[in-house]
Write a structure and sequence with these properties.
The chain is about 50% helix and about 15% strand. It is built from 15 helices and ten strands. Strand 6, helix 5 (about 140-150) and strand 7 form a beta-alpha-beta unit. The protein is globular, with a radius of gyration of 24 Å.
């Protein structure tokens, strides 16, 4: 009799365990490969979501793949080698000139974070007349930023100032030091180095608060149609990572140092990490919605090279914020921010 009771008790406990555990096991994790094209604070939230297990908590088994260069990342996305990509600038909709191939579903850094520095004898924008500005190449973010800055001083990049295609940031800085160009665009933490070497800061794009899709989540059109829920979970995980970065500076600094392979025990390394963290954390959006102002800035940039972009209707641009809107309506972003707001009061 005692054995029967023990057996019955065991079976009841077993079935209760199975019953209450079933919902957890029923929710299978979705495997996704996500690529990113730049290493730095602008993609730190992606790194943190993986490192801290935030993706897993949202039911995503993410494989994070670094692909240098946005063009290569877009090719990987279109070929199906990856299911999502963290990209910015013209690359996010560049494949959509003839038909919608890719879709921006969230924007996590929607402000241009970049400074224009001049040679040591150049202390103001008007002094750039007849000079040269080093950019990566035509059609890139540095090209757009240079044109934007020149417009502030009523200077034309076609007649007043020459834009020289030089290459990456390190190459442009070297060209500025050697006098090959008289100004160039720089992102944190290299801005710290430029300040210390005495190069004048002519325009701080971050302070301009220029709306610009600098770091967005991009997916293929077909993948979005078939997998809206997993993508919503990805957006939620990345938003949670940004919340953690904003609320816990030390976690952000440690993660950024690890990502950039810097040692926080070295003061010069710590300064570089803090410079990057400070610049980008303010530009990160708690609600990753790409506003129309950012879209207009992007189209303005792309129209400089191809006027046909200006005439495309909005539904042809490949921008769909409905997953962000659903998360907002559900109160997800408000719940993330609630503890911090309560603490402020």
């Amino acid at each position: 009799m005692k054995k029967k009771r023990a057996l019955i008790g065991f079976l009841i406990a077993f079935f209760l365990f199975v019953f209450f555990s079933a919902p957890l096991h029923a929710q299978k994790s979705q495997k996704l490969r996500i690529t990113y094209a730049s290493i730095g604070a602008q993609t730190l939230y992606l790194w943190l979501a993986q490192k801290e297990g935030i993706f897993r908590r949202h039911g995503i088994e993410a494989e994070i793949v670094y692909v240098p260069g946005s063009s290569a990342a877009v090719i990987a996305l279109l070929s199906g080698d990856v299911q999502a990509a963290i990209l910015g600038g013209p690359s996010i909709i560049g494949a959509n000139r003839k038909q919608v191939e890719t879709v921006v579903v969230a924007s996590f850094v929607s402000r241009l974070v970049m400074n224009l520095y001049g040679a040591k004898e150049i202390t103001s924008l008007p002094q750039l007349k007849g000079k040269k500005i080093g950019i990566t190449r035509f059609g890139t973010t540095s090209d757009f930023a240079a044109r934007y800055a020149l417009k502030k001083a009523n200077l034309s990049p076609d007649t007043d100032v020459a834009l020289i295609q030089i290459g990456d940031q390190a190459t442009r800085v070297a060209a500025l030091r050697k006098g090959v160009v008289q100004a160039t665009l720089v992102q944190p933490p290299v801005t710290l180095l430029m300040d210390r070497e005495g190069f004048p800061k002519l325009v701080d794009m971050t302070e301009e608060k220029l709306a610009y899709p600098l770091s967005t989540l991009v997916v293929g059109q077909a993948f979005l149609r078939k997998n809206p829920e997993p993508l919503k979970n990805v957006i939620a995980a990345l938003a949670e990572a940004i919340h953690l970065l904003k609320e816990n500076k030390e976690t952000g600094l440690r993660s950024l140092a690890e990502m950039m392979r810097l040692d926080l025990r070295r003061q010069d390394h710590r300064d570089a990490v803090e410079e990057s963290y400070r610049a980008y954390i303010d530009a990160m959006d708690r609600i990753p919605y790409l506003a129309q102002e950012g879209v207009k800035t992007l189209i303005q940039q792309m129209s400089m090279q191809d006027p046909g972009w200006a005439g495309l209707p909005p539904d042809r641009l490949g921008i769909d914020m409905h997953l962000v809107q659903e998360l907002e309506r559900s109160g997800f972003f408000q719940k993330l921010s609630a503890p911090a707001e309560k603490g402020v009061r």
